[in-house]
Amino acid sequence: STSSDTTSEAVQKEMIQEKQDAVLGELRVKESRQGERDEITSSEIKQTDIFIENRYTTINGFSGLVTASGLEELRNDPLVKSIAYDYPVMPVLSDSIPQINASHVWNLTAGGKNINGTGITICVIDTGIDYTHPALGGCSNASFLNGSCAKVLGGYDYGSGDADPMDVNSHGTHVAGITASENDTYRGVAPGAGLVALKVFTNTGSGSTSDVISAIDWCKNNRSVYNISVITMSLAVTSGGSELIFNSSCDSDDASGLASAASGAAAAGIFVDASAGNAGSSSGITSPGGGVNVT
User: Fold this and answer.
1) Where are the alpha helices (DSSP H) in the chain?
2) What is the Cβ-side half-sphere exposure of residue 246, based on CA atoms within 13 angstroms?
């Protein structure tokens, strides 16, 4: 990004911070330390109005645990536009390379570089990535954590709240393979690309929109560090165990804020793609895929 882009982003973040502080200033607040998944006891939550788990910059909002009295104060605050339940998300997957003829461009060049992902990094927001997989760099746990992996360059685990996004469910690794596998037979769409792993599911497979928005923020805020050009998400907002289907762009209709966050990252210059869903609906697609700026 240019220096003017960086200045504009800094101003935007400062404005968002000021607005969030204005809302929270009237409440008894306990806040999780940035980058850590703190816990709060039932007795502690009774001494607060809200426990902030995440503050966002892609959208002007925050998430956390709120008491009944805190919720009522937020509802009556004219600075608060909307309050949303933290919806569960589920991983979704689809077929890939042969369907889109990706291999046809691997040997083409543009600007002196092969059109195979070389020089870019892709944020995979999913169940993590098995960075020890030979098709995805074959790094050790130690080399990943010290930042010396050449393929999976970094990431974070929002499911456990630590710096190790190792995949134990295989879904995110499958997505990463579709995206950038270096295997000779099962090559990914962009085999030359680097990867960043943002794990937004627990080891048992549960996830939430608040953690996905946090991961989008992470990718956006670290794009210059890792040269992130793409965010890919093969997941969907659910309610009652079923995917929520939208038949038009859903930035305002998706009350969780996930579609809006995804569109915000795209508006900031990152190519954001998301799955249409597993439901096979003929009337619409899921969020975040339905975001107005999301492919």
Assistant:
1) 3-24, 42-46, 68-75, 97-100, 141-145, 171-180, 209-221, 223-226, 258-267
2) 21
pLDDT at residue number 44 = 81
Q: Quote the CA–CA distance of 130 and 52 in Å, as a whole number.
A: 30
What is the distance, to the nearest Å, from the Cα of residue 20 to the centroid of all Cα atoms in its chain? Answer: 21
Residues 69-101 pLDDT 10s: 999 999 999 999 999 889 888 776 445 677 888
Please list the ranges in the chain whose pLDDT falls under 70: 1-6, 34-38, 92-96
291 in Cβ contact with 251 (< 8 Å): yes
- The CA-atom distances, in angstroms, between 71 and each of 33, 66, 102, 138 are 22, 6, 49, 47
Backbone angles phi, psi at 85, to 5 degrees: -65, 145
Query: Facing residues of 15 across strands?
Result: none
